[in-house]
Amino acid sequence: MSDKNANNGRAYEFICLHTLYQAIFQFRAVIIDQNSSYCAAQEA
Fold first, then answer.
1. Measured in whole angstroms, how far is the alpha carbon of residue 20 from the centre of its chain?
2. Please, are residues 40 and 3 in contact by the beta-carbon 8 Å criterion?
3. Which of 1, 4, 41, 43 could be cross-linked to 14 through a Cys-Cys bond (beta carbons 3.0 to 4.6 Å apart)?
4. pTM, 2 dp
5. DSSP 8-state symbol, 11
């Protein structure tokens, strides 16, 4: 897998995570643990 494809995948995961967060946050408190994978996705 090329670096561009890997970064696109990380960016997609990041958007999915935040979309899910926004949907759940309407009904209950939610916390996203920020680890190295999260930071890599955020930078992508």
1. 9
2. no
3. 41
4. 0.80
5. H
Q: What is the pLDDT of residues 1-44, one digit of tens each?
A: 578 888 888 999 999 999 999 999 999 999 999 998 888 888 88
CA-based radius of gyration for the chain: 12
User: Are 41 and 10 a contacting pair, CB within 8 Å?
Assistant: yes
What pLDDT is attached to residue 15?
Answer: 94
Q: Hey, what amino acid is at 21?
A: Y
- Answer whether 36's CB lies under 8 Å from 8's CB: no
Taking Cα atoms as reference points, which of 4, 5, 12, 14 lies closest to residue 37? 14
Angle at 26 between CA 24 and CA 29, to 5 degrees: 70
